[in-house]
Amino acid sequence: MTVDVEYARRGDISIADQAIGDGLVDIIFGAGLVSHLDLVWADPYATAFLRELASIGRLLLFDKPGTGLSDPVAGVPTVQQRADDFLAVLDAAGSKRAVVIGYPEASAPAILLAATHPERVEGLIAMSGMARLTPDEDYIPGTEHRFEPFWAMIRHCTDHWGDGSMLHTLSPYARENLVYRRLAPNVERACASPGMARVMIKAMWDYDVTAAVDAIDVPTLVIHRTGDIVPVEGSRWIADKIAGAKMLELPGAEHMCYFNGDDILAGIEEFVGGSAPRGPISRKLVTVLYTDIVESTVRAVEMGDERWSTLLAAHHAAVRDQVERHDGTLIKTMGDGVLATFDRPTLAVRCALAVSRHAGDECIQVRAGVHAGECEVTDDDISGVAAHIGSRIMALAGPGEVLVSATVRDLAFGSGVEFDPRGEHELKGVPGKWSVHAVVADHREDQRPASRATPEQAALTPSPIVTMSAADRALVQVANRAPRLSRFTLRTLSRRPGSKPA
Fold first, then answer.
1. Which residues lie in coiled coils (predicted)?
2. Which of 61, 123, 59, 66 has the alpha carbon at shortest distance from 86?
């Protein structure tokens, strides 16, 4: 089976993608670090699995930036950028809505996408996923011992990428089968360079979408094998938190869905075929930004009505401009205050900083509060507890200060925005205590192709083609030019694990 590789664009970054089949439903499959759109079709079991998936609906595949055939990138990608990868591929394929599969670390950006853009998500499937990698008292407490083998694998792969240990650890079949055991190092090195793998692993370690899970309002299927080295407790937590989610817990320890994946495919087919048509989207995860002018009444008295009205109109126009520049939506102005919403927490924070800087030019000071949570969204307003929390956080801010909730801090992790803790506070009308953080700096480092980075930065995350051996390159060339021969060879030399190879 030969499938053409095309390229979607996220900014200046090219993302290798493929479209297979022509079903009525679009299915986008986000894979993990071991991803290569040429090599995958050289594997008989992967080919069989993906062909079956493509029989359910039009299948969209992609190598995330930094892996496989996509551009190498400089800098650590955020979970938001990973969610944007899905959107870029959907847009390039002309897909308005799709069933989104996140597997395995791609489950975190898939969750974030479902929470922030439910209008683009027909259904969510999280496979062997987690909302984050580190348990605490609020997230699957008491399971640290279950994570130790997984953490040990991650630490080893960080230092020894390319020795095949990730595939050997994740897949009992690949570990036991002589052919796959020998090919695993080549596959790892073809999917990512050691430097790129370290960056990707760090990004995965920093993911935290626990707040986004609570806001998901799309049909959801969670799939996990009980004995998977990726602890099943993470998937159970996700399924428990999402209203109406179905947990498909399967026997066995095989992490790689391509091997012995018939039960996974059956679950996906039932989910895609049985999802009821969805009504209009009204609730979603949004980031709210509140601002107001400090001591506005005093300034109004000092300036007089006419001058104050002129200043206020100019300020509102400047805020509106900044909201548009940061891809936000201005919901309303309230006297000297403003309410705006954003899909991305980082953009809300940067908009708040820009508004504060512009206000200084006008010889006024503003305070700002930012929070991310589930809101009821209408054409011209929002409602919900999250909106009230944003307002209460703003009220705590001092002149020129931007305060955010812990949720915003977590979702903005890795963006270059620096936060300083401001303690826990009781917010009027909102139960419990809330951790608040001040924005103290923005070391903005937008992800960009390695070709546009400095030589020092580019050297840290080279393309895999730079670091592959001659044998690695030969493997990729054979896979690209003769996928059928590659599948025949692997099928002949490998024993059957349970799935039918192509």
1. none
2. 61
Tell the CATH superfamily of the 6-277+469-493 domain: Alpha/Beta hydrolase fold, catalytic domain (3.40.50.1820)
Closest to 430 in 3D by CA, of 475, 389, 397, 478: 389
pTM of the model: 0.85
Cβ proximity of 193 and 66 under 8 Å? no
Query: In this structure, are strands 366-377 and 283-293 parallel, antiparallel, or unpaired?
Result: antiparallel
Helix extents (H) in 275-379: 296-303, 305-325, 345-361
The answer to whether domain 6-277+469-493 and domain 283-442 are alike in fold is no
CATH architecture of 283-442: 2-Layer Sandwich (3.30)
Three-point CA angle 133, 433, 365, nearest 5°: 100
Buried-exposed string 26-57: b where 16+ CB fall within 10 A, e elsewhere: bbbbbbbbbbbbbbbbbbbbbbbbbebbbebb
Output the pLDDT for position 138.
Answer: 86
For the chain, report the end-to-end CA distance as a whole number of angstroms: 9
Beta strands in 103-168 (DSSP E): 121-127
pLDDT tens, residue by residue, 281-332: 668 899 999 999 999 988 888 889 899 899 999 999 999 999 999 999 999 9
